[in-house]
Amino acid sequence: MFICSQNRWRSLSAERLFDQHPRYEARSAGTEPGARVRVTAGHLGWADVVLVMERRHADILRQKFGEALAGKRLINLRIPDKFQFLDHVLLDLLRERLREQLGPEVL
Prior knowledge:
By secondary structure, the chain is α/β, with parallel strands linked by helices.
């Protein structure tokens, strides 16, 4: 589960990296009221791993959904909000951080 603020650029781009992936399924959501898809406890319950773009997203999730995060791996990818949807630099950075955190077999 990928989380950013608005679910328009970073987390949605990350989700798209997994379209048609033979082994993994990804979803995305945002933390802000105007998000394209706003994160819920149900999203977090679905996820095996929760990946946020910034520390503040992790803080919001812990505050609002602490119980739903119990036992979940929560990873901060440290990707700033300065990229457009499917920006090639963003996609390269996502691939790099995902391999660092989850292993080379992920992408």
